[in-house]
Every structure is written in structure tokens, then in C-alpha cells.
């Protein structure tokens, strides 16, 4: 491992580390635009200059590998002067749209000008003009004047998605980002170019003009849209509720996790949060007292549910759990079914159209917690439950989250089943055709409204945190299930998701020894998967 | 005048044919080289003090020795026939009038670096040179000179100056946008299509058969201590006999202008000379007693570059000339790296304004400051080539610029 000295500090870095990363390891930030750790080296912005002993002039750090005995200085007068010059070059033709640019507040031109520029502008001639507000695809808007031609977006589409839609056309200061004729930036990962664009040249059409970034708060979370569980930051807008058309979740951003999603996020996941603030969100529990379900209180609901469950024989109760539930929800549910002696438990409902996966992130299994459901132990295939219901052998059916009409099951069979069961309970976040036929509709808190963990396809248990308050009276499923358990006379000590996880960890061996602390921000692999990996 | 070596056949109307080339001793060097070890050929070229004639003046034998000896895959030879440097038109003479000299040089170079495939990248506008050279390649195939372990592909450029820069050329040859590559890696390690590659200028390779035929010592003796041989100087501008003149590299600029090119035309009074293509810093009338080799011009604060000599007489406006040059560099910057992309355009605007009498008080100092800040910070030498004229024209003829700026 090469040992080198950076700004007088000795560091040892893995072979193949460039000077930007080596400096980072030593605690120094080298300003840069075109370098991105997930992409090839372009060496175009020329901002990352450092001084290397015995080298006649400053050298770019991104294209220089750390070598044994190297003496690097990132803050000589010469380097600082070069940075200032390069900042001036970057801004010669820049339009300075900051007051109306979405990137303002998280723009690396602004940040580096304040840190490394601070010169008096000398450019008094007419700037070069280029197209503004050009949609590149469904999610991304281009402002070519703001572009600093770092080529990150081009390399992303060439190297990561290998779809190659974007190119740099023309030459000199007329060089311009654009689409190749006949293409659209519509690949499955297009939103990532907005994240890696260091400036406001590529902005998110969904987020554009919604809220200023300095009003946003952040919670660490996990994407619930497929079995990978990409790590994300949920950006929420508490401080300007009248902005953003009342949407509380402003946007999702990928959060680096070397083992799961690296720097990336797919578009399905990135834009998959709209349900959280949709008009069809359920916010009050509703029950049917002879007529159509009417809003009621949780206390009444819990009491009635407990009575109904107690009034049925165990073999007359069916439970269709969901791989969209957290490990904590599922474990609480397992406690409930065990207490009641219910055997009709399953969680697998086949999707109407099988989804596909790819070699980047997306998994065909669009559920975040199938592994968790398997490990916690809430049955398997749910079809026998449907069949039992159709045959009139089920008196109480509790369905979590699924819209059975949107499954591969035959619509007629689903209708027959739901119509034959005297009490259908449905828990979920948003109304759907299944909830419409239920006698009890229980509003669940969405994943951004609560704490919990999912177990991804690799067996990695990952935490998601609360970013916003639950809407109305919506509750986490574990909370509702726990209260039903208590109403049935069980001793329920857990009052938080974390407590349920502790119980899970002490009951199910795969989770043994895990706590929210050990899971941390980047997740922890379950015992079984760990063994498989080391075998 | 001295012996003509590279241009010895230029006056023969049939010089481009294989028969004429053979009749004047052509392909004898190739016969001889086939009996030599590859390393011995490289050694001979090293000793000849041949330096690249495309612009950078890099020692040719040394460049060849950088090809990794243990490389298992293919090695490529790329001939730079893009000849884009303004004021330079010597390679086209070789392509049109002595194409077999280049083919023979390629055969020998290929043997030295164990290469089986060569590319000749010809400037897109060079239609006649391309036709003639392609004909010669066909003849060489028919005669069994090519296709016996060494093949040649002729590739036409599409009109970008930057595709003469060796890595820009390689990108273009690979079918990509003609963007120079970040170095390292250098082409000898990872060049065309990711393989070790030698890039040489047309004229450089045309020298090689003579070195093999007549020996390194003879070639070295033709020039100066640090550079051997003769080379072809393209002389244009205000001279009585513009054209390509071959002379030993120890010739002086004064000799070239007055003895070879027939002296200064128009007013007859010399004002300035650009000695090595548009990227070379300008010299004033009293700086022309320099030898026209790599080190001679470097010591004079300029560069020999591609040996394109452009002569200004007293009536030429230096600010106008700089406006033309600045326009060229702004137009030809590939736009890949920031200092070059952004400042060539800005400087063009300022110089144009000055030449049109709309300059501002600070313009000259701004240009000098911006150009010197950008120098040495870019991916390729294009920008330093633009800085050469920006700074030298203004510094050496400042009064002429100032006179145009309204008080
Ligand atoms: C902007 C730029 C343009 C160039 N154009 C040419 C050219 O047209 N022809 C050429 O032979 N070399 C040109 N060069 C030099 C090449 O990069 C390279 O040094 C040369 O082809 C190597 O061959 P040599 O060693 O035989 O001279 C250019 C260099 C730069 C920086
Ligand atoms: S659009 Fe953004 S990412 Fe793409 S080249 Fe321009 S600045 Fe870089
Ligand atoms: S790949 Fe899956 S987890 Fe990742 S962002 Fe897309 S849907 Fe979400
Ligand atoms: S210096 Fe100019 S020509 Fe060379 S790579 Fe940079 S932008 Fe392109
Ligand atoms: S980060 Fe090194 S040149 Fe851009």
C-alpha cells in the first residue's frame, strides 16, 4: 500500500487510489468537477490541481495515482492561484441565473466560487448563449448555458446505463450538451444525471421550482420499491408547507452504499413516493356497522377487531401479510397469528405483470421485504387462503397492503372470495379496489412516516427513519397489531418499532445479535446470508 | 545550396510512381532493414538525432523505444498526415510527389516496433494528396511490398485542427469525437484502440529510409549537435518566392527568407516572422539570426514547431494578424477542457474589438494575464500553442495595439 505525505500528513492508501481520494482519506478536500468516483477519469475541468514535489507545475489530482513517497501539497500559493484562475474560466460564460436556478444552495459553482474564487469578474463582453429549459426526457430538464461541460452526464449514460443518449456537440465555447438525434433521455436511471451534475444544468422536472433546497430537511431511509433497497435520503419540506403544492416529501436522493446501490437510484424508486401525499391516502380507520364503512376511532376499531377475531375459530381466520411490511410489522403479526393459532397465513401474491430486473439495480421482485417475510416466518403462498375464502371456509380475512385485484389472480375469484368472507379487514396506505370491498379499513403509516427495517435480497437488514408525521390517524402496522394483541390479553411491551426489532432479534436466529445500533446507516447482513457469503 | 534529400524527386513529374521511386534508389533501405534486428534499427535512428518534424520535436528513436517489449497484443503505427498548422504545407509535397518515401519509412518503422498494421490519417481537405498516396499504397500492395506482414489503412480526417494532436487524432481514428486524451497513459503505452501506438509525422518517417541507407552518422552530421538531418520549411506571407524549401536544420531564418524565398515582398521591409507555424511565438525583424532547429528557436523564445515560416512586411498590421490567429484558436479549440474552451473565445472577442478600434484600456493586460494563467493547465498543447501568439504579438508590438485603443 503506497505511503505518501499530503499537506505534511502521512497517509497510507490502497493501491490504485488517486490523489483526490487519497487526500479525502487524509482529511483534505480537493475541489473538483469532472471527477466522480463511479465514472471514468475525464480530466476536463482542471480544477483539481495540486502540487507534487519535484513536478514543475501543478498537476491534476484526479488522474494521478498515489505513489510511495509522494509529497503532495494541496494548498500552496501556486495551487490556490491556479484554482482561482480555473474558477474564473468556468464562470466566463456562465449566466449566473442563481436567483431562478433550482441548484442554488447546492451548486458547486456557488460553493467553490466562495471557497476558491472570490476574484473580481473581468468579462465584460457578450457571453455565449445556448438553449435553456430543454426537456431531455420525462424527468430531466437541460439548461445548456449553465453547463460547465464536465461530461459526467455523458459518461454516466455511456458507462453505467450504456444507453449513450447524451453527447457534447460543437466545439470550443460553443460546445453544448445535447441528445443524439432520435433519442430521449428515458433510460431507467435517468434521474441520476441530475444528482451528478455539479451545477444547475440538469434539473429534476418533478422537483423544479417546487421549493428552495435550503428549506429541506433530510432523513436517512431505504427505497421501498424493490428487493434491492437502495439507500436514500428523503428530503422533506416542513418549513414552507405552502410550497411544493402541499407535498410533504420533496424528493428522494440516493445515499451511497458500496454494497447495495453505490451512488445510484432507479427512476421507478426515485419517483415512487408520490402515493404518500396522494388524495387517495387513508387517514382514519373506518368500520362497517351494517352499512358502508364509516370513520371511527382506533379504540373502537381495536375493540371490535379483537372481538371479531376471538369470535372466529382459528381455522376460520385468514391472514394475507405483505412483503411491503417491515420486519417489525411482520414479527408483530407473527405473534398475533401464533396467539390465535391461525394457520391460514401467507404473504406471496403474484403480481399481475411480472416485473423484470436488470444488471444495475432493479430487481424483478418489486417488494422491499420478501426476504424479511421469509425469515420472520409468515407463511408463504397466499393462494390457498384465497381458495379457502372462496369455498366459504374463512370468516375473518385480514389483508395487508395488497390490492388483490391488481394481482395475477383471476378477478372473478378475488371477488368471490371477498364477497363470501363475512369480515374483511384491510390495512394499507392508499385506497384501492380491495379496500373498497373491506368491512374494516385501517390506515397504515407510509414508510417515510415511521421507523423500521427491511431485509433486502442480499439478506441485508436496513433501517428507514421517520421523515414526516403520519397523515391523520394513520399508524404503523406493528402498532395496530400490537394493540389488537393487547386487547386479546397478550402482554405487549413494545411501544416502538425498535422494541419489536429487539424481540425479533431474540426470537429469530437469523437476526440474532442485531440491534438498530449495529445495523447503523449502511445495514447488516443476516446470519444465514453471512454464512452463505463466507461459504 | 545544400544537397536535397527529402525533396530530391519533387521535380520529376512521375516521382509518385513506384518505378520512378525505385529508379532513384527507393526501397533499398527496406531491403537492408529486413536484414537488421528491430532493436538495431531503433538504435540507428536514435544515433541519427532525428527529431519529430510534426511539431513537438521529440527524438524519434527514443519514442520508438518506449513501446513495451513484453506486450502480447498488436502494436500500431499511426502516421500523422493531418497537416493543420497554419503556415505549414510540406507534408502534402511528400504525399503527392514522393509517397513511396513515406511507405518505405513506415515499413522500416513497423519492423523496428514489431507492428503489423499502420494507419495514415490524412487531413480531410487534402483530396489530391489522399488520391495520390492511396494510389501508391495500391502499387505497393501489387508489388508485394505491403500485405506481407504489414498492412496500411488510409483514413481521411474531417476537418478539425485538433485531430492533428496525436491523441485527438487517435480518438478520431477510433471513431470518436476528436478529443485529445488525458495523459498518462501516453500512446506508446496505450494508444489507438487501447494498444501501444507510435505516432509519427509524415516527414519524420520519410527521413528514415535515408538514415538506414546512408547511416546515422551521416544524417546527424547534416544538422546541429542536438538535431540531425535536413527538413522542409514552408515559407509563406510577404516573400518573393513562397514555397517549400529543404535545408539543413542549421539554416538560419535570415538565410531562409533572403536566400531561399527571395527576400521580403510588398514594402520590402521586414517587420516580423512567425518561424514555426501559427503556434510559434513571433520574432521581430532583428531576431532572425537564429538557427532553425528545435533548440535554436527554443533559445530564442519561440519554437520550430512544424517549420511553417510566415513573413510579415512593414505593411502588415500585427493586431489584425492576431485577430485572425485568435479567431482560428477560438474556432478550433475542441472545447474539452475549461481554460482553453472558455478563454480562447473570450480572448478572440477582446482582440477583435481592439483591431476594430473598440478596445478598452484594460484589454491588453487582461489578455496577457488570462493567457499566462491558462498556459500549462490544459489537457493538450493546443492551448499553449494559442498562448504563444497571444502573448508574443502583444508584448513585442504593444505600441501598435495601444495605438488602436481609444483614449
Ligand atoms: C494542436 C496540435 C496540432 C497538431 N497538429 C499536427 C499535425 O497536423 N501534424 C503533425 O504531424 N503533428 C501535429 N501535432 C503534433 C502531434 O501531436 C505529434 O507530436 C506528432 O504527430 C508526433 O510526430 P513526430 O514525433 O514525428 O513529430 C499537433 C500538436 C498539437 C498540440
Ligand atoms: S449537464 Fe451537468 S453533468 Fe452534464 S456536462 Fe453539463 S455540467 Fe456536467
Ligand atoms: S433499484 Fe429498487 S430500491 Fe433501488 S431505487 Fe430503484 S426501486 Fe428503489
Ligand atoms: S487544450 Fe483545448 S484543444 Fe486541447 S483538449 Fe483542452 S480544450 Fe481541447
Ligand atoms: S476533477 Fe480532475 S480535472 Fe476535473
Based on the model shown, name its key terms:
heterodimer; A: 535 residues; alpha/beta; Ubiquitin-like (UB roll); Alpha-Beta Plaits; Rossmann fold; eight-stranded mixed β-sheet; 16 helices; 24 strands; elongated; B: 407 residues; five-stranded mixed β-sheet; four-stranded parallel β-sheet; 17 helices; 9 strands; binds flavin mononucleotide; binds iron/sulfur cluster; binds FE2/S2 (inorganic) cluster
Largest β sheet strand count, sense and barrel closure of chain B = 5 strands, mixed
Number of domains of chain A: 3
The biggest sheet of chain A amounts to: 8 strands, mixed
Q: What is the strand content of chain B?
A: 5-15%
**Helicity of chain A, as a percent range:** 25-40%
Instruction: Provide mean pLDDT of chain A, rounded.
Output: 95
Name the chain pair with the biggest interface and residue counts per chain: A-B, 37 and 33 residues
Query: Which term fits the overall shape of chain A?
Result: elongated
Overall 3D shape of chain B: globular
The CATH topology of the largest domain in chain A corresponds to Rossmann fold
Q: How many alpha or pi helices of chain A?
A: 16
Strand segment tally of chain B: 9
Itemize the secondary structure elements and their pairings.
The complex is a heterodimer of chains A (535) and B (407).
Chain A: E1 3-6, E2 9-12, H1 19-26, E3 49-52, E4 59-60, E5 71-73, H2 77-91, H3 108-117, E6 134-135, E7 140-142, H4 152-160, E8 166-169, E9 176-179, H5 192-196, E10 202-204, E11 217-222, E12 231-236, E13 249-254, H6 267-270, E14 286-287, E15 294-295, H7 298-310, E16 317-320, H8 327-340, E17 344-348, H9 370-376, E18 380-381, H10 383-390, E19 396-400, H11 411-420, E20 423-428, H12 433-436, E21 440-443, E22 452-455, E23 460-464, H13 477-487, H14 497-507, H15 516-519, E24 524-525, H16 527-534
Chain B: H1 18-23, H2 28-33, H3 38-47, H4 60-65, E1 76-81, H5 91-97, H6 99-113, E2 117-122, H7 127-142, E3 151-156, H8 166-173, E4 197-201, H9 202-214, H10 216-222, E5 230-237, E6 243-248, H11 253-260, E7 270-274, E8 283-284, H12 294-299, E9 308-313, H13 318-332, H14 338-355, H15 363-374, H16 382-396, H17 398-402
Parallel strand pairs in B: 1-2, 1-4, 2-3, 5-9
Antiparallel strand pairs in B: 5-6, 7-8, 7-9
One iron/sulfur cluster binds at residues 147-153, 177, 196-199, 201-202 of chain A.
